[in-house]
Amino acid sequence: MISINALISANNISVIKNEKAILKNIDIQINKNDFVSIIGPNGAGKTMLLKCLMGFYKPDFGQINKKSNLKIGYMPQNINITNTMPINVSSFITVRKKFDKISFKQVILETQIDNIIHKQLSVLSGGEMQRVLLARSLLNNPDLLILDEPAQNLDISGQMNFYKLLQSIYVKRNLSILMVSHDLHLVMVSTKRVLCLSNHICCSGKPQHITKDPEFISMFGKDMANMMAVYQHSNSHDHNQNFIIGEENN
Predict the structure, then answer these.
(1) Which residue, among 2, 47, 34, has the nearest Cα to 145 in the 3D structure?
(2) What count of Cα atoms within 13 Å lies in the side-chain half-sphere of residue 164?
(3) How many Cβ atoms from other residues are within 10 Å of residue 195's Cβ?
(4) What is the pTM of this model?
(5) What's the per-residue H, E or C state across the chain?
(6) pLDDT truncated to tens, each residue of the chain (250 aa)?
(7) Distance, CA of 219 to chain centre
(8) Exposed, middle or buried: residue 105 (CB in 10 Å: 0-12, 13-18, 19+)?
(9) Could you give the CA distance from residue 106 to residue 37 in angstroms, rounded to a whole number?
(10) First-last CA distance in the chain
(11) CA-based torsion, 87, 92, 96, 100: positive or negative
């Protein structure tokens, strides 16, 4: 059974490959209006956890439950686009998607791609491509948006703009977000909960608490933990900030 406020939950799931535990005894629950970020080193199993939750990969052990009729929007790390692929932005967003004109217009305006809607994918910048992928993931009006390293190929300015856009969509649509990210400085000011993964869950909690956790400090180092704590505290007192600090509403 899944609790009334939960959209998706994993109970004690494990994935074993070549006698190695990619994921070990993972418990996670994503609730309505949640914003959860998964962080951890390379090879920690972050992408595999997303695949299991979405049903792309069946774990060797454990159970995954989803809310009935749950709609998930997925934004992958990237896609391979070649100059020989003759498809424009509009066609890419809508291919194999059920949508109406109102929903299409809404995501175009939300993701700020109305000025590139007729461009070929092959000529887009990194920032434009990420917004296009985001638009496609939103077209079916999802209850849960899942993003895998959505800003990994962007410079710091592009990262900040993307996370600002994502935060705006989160607030306006009142959906839930589950995101894998390496951008610790931005995760700390845009997320309700942070989950540290290294094949198993090392620690989890609110951003303002997790930087003090010994497991977080062991994973990222004392200097990084101190810097993130100061950064998060500083932003929580900046009333003109672009991000909304992740606090529970109740």
Answers:
(1) 34
(2) 10
(3) 22
(4) 0.86
(5) CCCCCEEEEEEEEEEEECCEEEEEEEEEEEECCCEEEEECCCCCCHHHHHHHHHCCCCCCEEEEEECCCCCEEEECCCCCCCCCCCCEHHHHHHCCCCCCHHHHHHHHHHCCCCCCCCCEHHHCCHHHHHHHHHHHHHCCCCCEEEEECCCCCCCHHHHHHHHHHHHHHHHHHCCEEEEECCCHHHHHHHCCEEEEECCCEEEEECHHHHCCCHHHHHHHCHHHHHHHHHHHHHHHCCCCCCCCCCCCCC
(6) 567 889 999 999 999 999 999 999 999 999 999 999 999 988 999 999 999 999 999 999 999 999 999 999 999 887 777 666 789 999 999 988 887 888 899 999 999 999 999 999 989 998 999 999 999 999 989 999 999 999 888 888 888 899 999 999 999 999 999 999 888 877 777 789 999 999 999 999 998 888 888 888 888 888 777 776 665 555 554 444 444 333 333 3
(7) 20
(8) exposed
(9) 26
(10) 24
(11) negative
Tokens of 117: 């809607």
In the block, residue with structure tokens 């993307």: 162
Q: Are 180 and 38 in contact (CB under 8 A)?
A: yes
Tokens 């990194």 belong to 126
**Residue that the structure tokens 């410079």 belong to:** 155
